[in-house]
Amino acid sequence: MKSKAFAFACAAVILSSYAATAVQPGTVVGWGDQVIPIVAPNTRYAKIGAGGEHSVAIKSDGTLIAWGANGSGQSVVPDRLNGIVAVAGGATHSLALKSDGTVVVWGNSSFGLTSFASGLSNVVAIAGGGNHDLALKSDGTVIAWGDNSDGECTVPIGLSDVTAVAAGYEHSLALKSNGKVVGWGRTFGARAPRPLI
């Protein structure tokens, strides 16, 4: 079966004070199918995430904003969501990591995307894939949930000492403390995990 191609339709970057540009630090620059939301000129952002056709950002005051496609409610930020330290986007859902180590997911509820996250704790990083998500726990282990039709949620047995995670449409990646990358899911053939570096 031919692998599906998936590319996020929106890209955005937060400019730091070191960026060589005339745009103010903390502003969001975007390109692709989505446009930056119209907000007050003094709005500044701390962190951002891009999904399939939507984006989500943490404003400098700690509140969230999302924009773009909203067919599954992925751009409707849940009420009273606070203490957010990181955000990510999937194909049609959004994720937020709270300062207490818990995760909130909204939008597409297929594959248990929104319900599974409610039981997570001790999470230090998140990543949104096509229809699956990853959470890095404080002990260096990885939890994955959602669509596993291509093995993207089958975390390799014994995977530990992970310092970062990333998710593609049908595959997952983990960066270990020794600088090695481990990948699993469709892209890596036969649904078997393998070291990349």
Key words describing this protein structure:
single chain; 197 residues; mainly beta; Methylamine Dehydrogenase, Chain H; four-stranded antiparallel sheet; three-stranded antiparallel sheet; 1 helix; 15 strands; 2% helix; disordered N terminus
Task: Please summarize what this structure is.
This protein is mainly beta.
Distance between the termini: 26 Å
What is Rg? Answer: 17 Å
Strand order of the largest sheet: 12-13-14-15
Unreliable spans are 1-23
Counting DSSP H or I runs of 4 or more residues, the number of helices is 1
CATH superfamily of the domain at 10-121: Regulator of chromosome condensation 1/beta-lactamase-inhibitor protein II
Q: Give helix and strand order, one letter per element, not per position.
A: EEEEEEEEHEEEEEEE
Oligomer: single chain
Q: Strand count, sense and closure of the main sheet?
A: 4 strands, antiparallel
Q: Which structural category do the helix and sheet elements fall into?
A: mainly beta
Cα shape = globular
Q: Predict the CATH topology of the domain at 10-121.
A: Methylamine Dehydrogenase, Chain H
Q: What portion of the residues fall into strands of 2 or more residues? A: 35-45%
Q: Care to count the β-strands?
A: 15
Helix content: under 10%
Mean pLDDT reading: 82
Tell me the CATH architecture of the domain at 10-121.
7 Propeller
Q: Can you tell me the CATH class of the domain at 10-121?
A: Mainly Beta
